[in-house]
Specification:
By secondary structure, the chain is mainly alpha-helical. It is built from twelve helices and two strands. Helix 2 runs antiparallel to helix 3 (about 50-65), helix 3 (about 50-65) runs parallel beside helix 5 (about 80-90) and helix 8 (about 130-145) packs across helix 10 (about 155-170). The protein is globular, with a radius of gyration of 19 Å.
Length: about 210
């Protein structure tokens, strides 16, 4: 399925191959699907192979617009963050980004959803993607900036992502608001490194 997608095959053709692959996933999580030289039998669920397979299916499905399959695969992850972060590096259309943002907030704890959403936005501006994608990233950054709990999530990682996106997209007010939240978080936690980061980014924004 991934080879067909990379070769620009029609979405329906790719989707058919995805359905075939998913139909061959083991029904039992305890089924051995590989044999490690040291570890011995590798079980479908506990080895991480199930999550990796579902994550790859979710990514390809999102890129071709099969968002139902994407959501279904993400809903079955046992260790979700690795695969969610893998998705943030994919070049996804805005419709898929909207659906993934909604799915993240539905499936993940609030702190993790905020972090994943921020990383989607940050990767978009870092890669210099399309105008529509960058507009989505800024809109997402503004939404996160309006949520004080989100800005404190992951020890300031969300606030940092919001600031990066906002300054890159020329929204100085949102960028500075995110850095102020980061500075207050640093003071509250007596975290010198975090405070230095906030100060450095604020100084860079003024230059």
């Amino acid at each position: 399925a991934e080879a067909l997608h990379l070769a620009d095959a029609a979405p329906d053709e790719v989707s058919q191959q995805i359905s075939l692959a998913v139909s061959q996933f083991p029904e039992s999580g305890s089924e051995a699907v590989a044999l490690g030289l040291v570890s011995g039998p590798m079980l479908w669920e506990s080895s991480g192979l199930a999550d990796e397979a579902r994550g790859r299916v979710a990514a390809i499905s999102a890129e071709i617009g099969d968002l139902d399959t994407t959501a279904r695969m993400l809903d079955r992850l046992s260790e979700p963050m690795t695969q969610w972060l893998y998705l943030t590096d994919r070049d996804l259309p805005v419709a898929a980004l909207d659906a993934l943002r909604e799915t993240a907030w539905r499936l993940l704890p609030a702190e993790d959803a905020a972090y994943v959403t921020g990383q989607f936005a940050r990767m978009i501006v870092a890669d210099g993607r399309t105008f529509d994608q960058r507009t989505w990233a800024l809109r997402t950054a503004r939404e996160l900036a309006a949520d004080p709990d989100a800005l404190q999530a992951r020890s300031g990682a969300v606030a940092t992502a919001v600031a990066v996106v906002a300054f890159e997209q020329q929204d100085v007010a949102v960028g500075r608001a995110a850095l102020e939240a980061l500075a207050w978080l640093a003071l509250d936690r007596h975290d010198a490194a975090l405070l230095v980061r906030a100060g450095y980014m604020m100084r860079a924004s003024l230059s």
